[in-house]
Amino acid sequence: MIEIKNLSYGYDQSLVLDGINLSYDEKEFLAIIGPNGGGKSTLLKLMLGILTPKSGEILLFGKSPKDVCKFIGYVPQFIPINKAFPISVLEVVMMGRIDKKRFGFYSKNDKKEALKALEIVGISHLANRRIIMLSGGQRQRAYIARALCSDAKVLFLDEPTASIDTRGQIEIYELLSRLNKSGIGIVLVSHDINMAIHYATKVAYVARNLVMHDIDTKDNFLKHLKQEHSHFCDVELILKECSCKKS
Ligand SMILES: Nc1ncnc2c1ncn2[C@@H]1O[C@H](COP(=O)(O)OP(=O)(O)OP(=O)(O)O)[C@@H](O)[C@H]1O
């Protein structure tokens, strides 16, 4: 579903990503981890078609990302909220169907789909509340609902649990895991290695290059890190000596 071949990208002369290869299908819950400035968000933006590769190729569902945006739901890292604009949760979620509007109006079906998405993420009771009144975790659920109701086959999320408390983080990861099991692809950038390891089925470590790890079980992955990467710590994974296949 996502095929990346020999991808390189730099904002100026120097390369941020160099020779990246990745093969992903929607059955997987893929977490992209790595150090600050390693190129995680850049990789996500390339997969979304927001940026264009300097060299190499990215195919989503066999096509260029720009041609398949209707299958992609994106939850960005920062979503600015205009406090003076009293938009409701339901209205935010319906924005996911903006391309389906007819003559500038949402249909009954758009509203039905938005309510269904709110039901799935567990906050249908908050549909009429102003978005600024929600907690960080509830707001993040609303944005996931917005991405879902666009009929997305894969969700891309950039740091979905930043500034959410631990309980809220677990709930968001549980929700994403459930969505993944129901057939929706999940690709997320995370700094929280513990959460990523616990919920993801694949972990891509990105620091200019990409190293892919399969996670059959959390224990095996931690054992693997201990054996192969003696300087592993919670925040900075340094996998330069990694015996895993560098793709
Ligand atoms: N628009 C831009 N113009 C120039 N350089 C940029 C731009 N966006 C990112 N960079 C640089 O590209 C590199 C990779 O940035 P990116 O945001 O992809 O890293 P990241 O792994 O997501 O980092 P973090 O974990 O800190 O969010 C960094 O050195 C960053 O300064």
From TrEMBL:
<dbReference type="GO" id="GO:0016887">
    <property type="term" value="F:ATP hydrolysis activity"/>
</dbReference>
<dbReference type="InterPro" id="IPR003593">
    <property type="entry name" value="AAA+_ATPase"/>
</dbReference>
<dbReference type="InterPro" id="IPR050153">
    <property type="entry name" value="Metal_Ion_Import_ABC"/>
</dbReference>
<keyword id="KW-0067">ATP-binding</keyword>
<dbReference type="GO" id="GO:0005524">
    <property type="term" value="F:ATP binding"/>
</dbReference>
<keyword id="KW-0813">Transport</keyword>
<comment type="similarity">
    <text>Belongs to the ABC transporter superfamily.</text>
</comment>
<dbReference type="InterPro" id="IPR027417">
    <property type="entry name" value="P-loop_NTPase"/>
</dbReference>
<dbReference type="InterPro" id="IPR003439">
    <property type="entry name" value="ABC_transporter-like_ATP-bd"/>
</dbReference>
<feature type="domain" description="ABC transporter">
    <location>
        <begin position="2"/>
        <end position="233"/>
    </location>
</feature>
<protein>
    <submittedName>
        <fullName>ABC transporter ATP-binding protein</fullName>
    </submittedName>
</protein>
<keyword id="KW-0547">Nucleotide-binding</keyword>
<dbReference type="Pfam" id="PF00005">
    <property type="entry name" value="ABC_tran"/>
</dbReference>
